[in-house]
């Protein structure tokens, strides 16, 4: 991932279960296994968790 994720960034999910969805990045964590996990909040208020590698920043 070439772009650093920050809280409030607008992003598109490009892989995984939530592919095709978009929203704002929040709650960035580093998991025990070394993967970056984030929460994405959609415009309608629905939130979901995904891996940082599955998103691209707009």
UniProtKB/TrEMBL annotation:
Pfam families: KOW. Residues 4-31 form the KOW domain. This is RNA-binding protein. SUPFAM superfamilies: Translation proteins SH3-like domain (SSF50104). Gene3D superfamilies: 2.30.30.30.
């Amino acid at each position: 991932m070439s772009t650093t994720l920050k809280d409030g960034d607008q992003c598109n999910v490009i892989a995984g279960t939530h592919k095709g969805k978009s929203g704002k990045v929040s709650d960035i964590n580093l998991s025990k296994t070394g993967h970056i996990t984030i929460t994405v909040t959609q415009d309608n208020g629905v939130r979901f968790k995904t891996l940082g590698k599955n998103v691209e920043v707009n």
